[in-house]
Structure prediction request, 807 residues.
Amino acid sequence: MIITRKKLTVVLFCLIFSAIVGLFFRLQTLLDFSSGIIPIVMHEDPWYTVRQIEQMVHNYPSYAWFDPMLNYPDGKTIQWGPFFPFLGSTFALVFGATTQGDIIRITSWVPPLLFLMMIPISFLIGKKIWNLRVGVLSAILVSVVNGEFLYRSMYGNLDHHIAETVLSFAFILGYLYILQFLKNKNHSEKSTYLYLLSLFCGMVYYMGYMNIPTIMLVALTIPIFFVVYAFLEDDVSSVSKLFLANAIIFGTFILLYLLSGVPYHGLDIQGYNYGVIAASIAIILFSLFVSVLKQHFAIQSGKAKPKCIVYSGIIAILLIILGYYLGIFLSFYKSFTKFFFASFSSTGIDELSPISLMRAVLSYNVAIAFSIIGFFIIVYAIIRNKNRILIYFFIWATLLSIVSISQVRYQYYEGPIVCILMAICLDQIYLKLSEQLDKKKKVNNSSLNSKNIALIFVILIVVVYYILSLSIGLYVLPTFYGKSIKSEWVDTTLWLKNNTPEPSLDYYAIYEHDSFQYPSNTHTILSWWDYGHYILTIGKRLPLATPLQDRGAHIAASFFLTTNETKANQVISPFHARYIVTNYDLSQIYNTVSLWAGQKFSYESYIHNFIRKNNNNNVTQLKGLRDPFFLSMFTRMHYFDGSFMKASEGHEISYADIPSDGVNISYIVHDLDPSTLDLNPAFIKKDKISFNYTRSTVDVPALTSYRLIYESPKVVSNLTDFEIHPVKIFEHVKGHTIPGTGTIELPLVTNQGRNFTYQQQSVNNTFTLPYSTTNSPYDVHATGPYRIIETNEIFEVDESQIEKYYI
Prediction:
């Protein structure tokens, strides 16, 4: 198809316009992320990318496949590749950024700049599978599509997923060009072009895998399509050439992967080991197998000769036996189930949940309807002409759509696909409307230009889509700012950096897993796993739990929910947790915490949700707090500062569990009419609960081996009984034991000027005191001596008398 200069001008204008609008749409976060105490990035995971880029800047271009500052005492083998950190560190060095703040400011541009590559890629894919109009429309639509695709390409979202999207779509584009080459009748004369395209796809696949292993989703489409292609294609030479292309693609990948060095052993296809080589060889052999069948047994017109079926079955059985013997299939199966069936219900992680209708509408608005129509238009076109290029796009788009619908974290793939499908639908609207207007024009002898009218109609639809997308993006995206680090966590991690002992590990150094040993005084900092990367990257300290969800996530959950201090100490002692960071938000996600702690810490044993109906049948949801909630380490530390707390509230309530939509709802009975419910008294339960987080239902013992040493500046506004700060830090100490009986108390003031009194009841005629009264190294300090209330006896304890851990 020859493009005139006028058309070329229009196309270039549309592409440039889309790029400018899309880029500025992604710079909304620029000022917010650059104007705080320190420059910040979006969400939790990008903070670890910052750490990786810092490491690479100081060791360019070496990459740390092992990080001893994670997952103590084993360290962490990193399960994604160096591509994005390499890109970020190169960008930083080119612009002279070496400090953390400068690195963040400079490299935060990488995601929106990578997005710009999606404009020409979307254009070329749309043009290749359909026509020039669809290409232009795809580029225009993708610039403002919302959802994960927009979120992952925002300024400050320093994560590898936008690179994953770009490289995946670039691979698909290259493969579509290979299919276009095979479609031409004279392809036998231009094999060099095929080789170059295959090399390009192989290199893109290599870069994609060295970014993150999920690029293998693209690889999965190759054998599926190859079977379909061999089944439909009558030209045996085309099948052979496509096999050759597959062999070059994955052979190139294997060669580059081996040359760059295989960091780990094993056959896990999700890890950087030999599993991906086995998978690549399997794709090549499978393509060879199908190609040989096509050549020698003539699979034609959908009918295979009986001999073909027999030989195919024998070879398949032999391959299965070999794979089973080598353990390849078991490894593949485990990786497959881990990838596709990770569950929101078992982890409470939002990105593992299926996409909701509301989230889909906010992401794609009117594009949902148009893309669904576009999908069926493609199906109809495939049924009619069996276009091989369209079939491959269909297989790829369908697979990624299934994956992204089942787990919202993969929606960054879906955004561009929705735009391409919508573009196809709009193109058909344009053609059909033009056709109908032409018919009316002949009947009415009208002078109206039907194509211009149809074009205006399509432009109006695009304008509506743009207005909705930009409006939703500008309204919804500020909620994502809440997913960025809060100021209290910046304050807290900077305090850790400046006021706790530096680790014996060099933050910037690259260590080898096989030769590494931890220094004996290594200690960690325990927090909920959401915040581990903050502690590592800003605080330069070893977090015990991180968003990578290793063993530390379960340890944190078990520690915070444990109701016995001795057991809590046993939980963290093997992991040298010297500091504990608590945060108020944890009380809002208790259900998630209990999921990570396992069955022995059920959510219902801590908090029970009740429904109360008043006389007007208005429903109020209430959280009933039970004894274990107040005895848990989290509540004792964050709400009571580790002090003894006497029971101050206990509502005796009666309730009944009434089935509703397959779920039992607990209704408070005295608010209902028992005669209406026809309840059997045997089914009425009783409980003693509190509706106030700071008023316990049970006497809460003091903590003897944890002392408050810091709290963040702000105050939680929805609590009036106590002054609760969002984030607190406690030091784990052995304390100082003195003889005595009764209740001892100590007046203290925090670094924020809040006065509180620590109280402890004697156990076995002794007190174990966590605070010193003189020479405290912290701004949280005593304002007087210890005093036994019953005898008025006072004690002074110097900091040197407080025994500590891991020094």
Remarks:
- The mean pLDDT is 88.
